[in-house]
């Protein structure tokens, strides 16, 4: 049986995970986030990270939660998805957990149809449930919605 490691972070007081192979680094929220006009509300703007311009995505807003205020405890989880670097606003990053395939519950077809396509499943570890994101679908969803708003 194969296992996959996920970096676990908090959003809206729930635990989420994204495959560790996509994670590049975790940084504090910079003082300067440059806003870009006519972007979806979940796009906070862009930052300059060592000469690279990264789009800052507020996952709480993207998933329709109450707006998470950016605080000194907030972090940016820098991920690379298909050669695109994104900065994901998260409340906290807690740990790395490996899940066996058998401990990942696929979403029911109803949830998948009406819910969020960027969800991969639910990771179960003891009594905890960790919502696992599908990184490639997250990137596609973020950019398709942005393009749809520009039309």
Automatic annotation (TrEMBL):
<dbReference type="GO" id="GO:0005829">
    <property type="term" value="C:cytosol"/>
</dbReference>
<dbReference type="InterPro" id="IPR002545">
    <property type="entry name" value="CheW-lke_dom"/>
</dbReference>
<dbReference type="Pfam" id="PF01584">
    <property type="entry name" value="CheW"/>
</dbReference>
<dbReference type="GO" id="GO:0007165">
    <property type="term" value="P:signal transduction"/>
</dbReference>
<protein>
    <submittedName>
        <fullName>Purine-binding chemotaxis protein CheW</fullName>
    </submittedName>
</protein>
<dbReference type="InterPro" id="IPR036061">
    <property type="entry name" value="CheW-like_dom_sf"/>
</dbReference>
<dbReference type="InterPro" id="IPR039315">
    <property type="entry name" value="CheW"/>
</dbReference>
<feature type="domain" description="CheW-like">
    <location>
        <begin position="3"/>
        <end position="144"/>
    </location>
</feature>
<dbReference type="GO" id="GO:0006935">
    <property type="term" value="P:chemotaxis"/>
</dbReference>
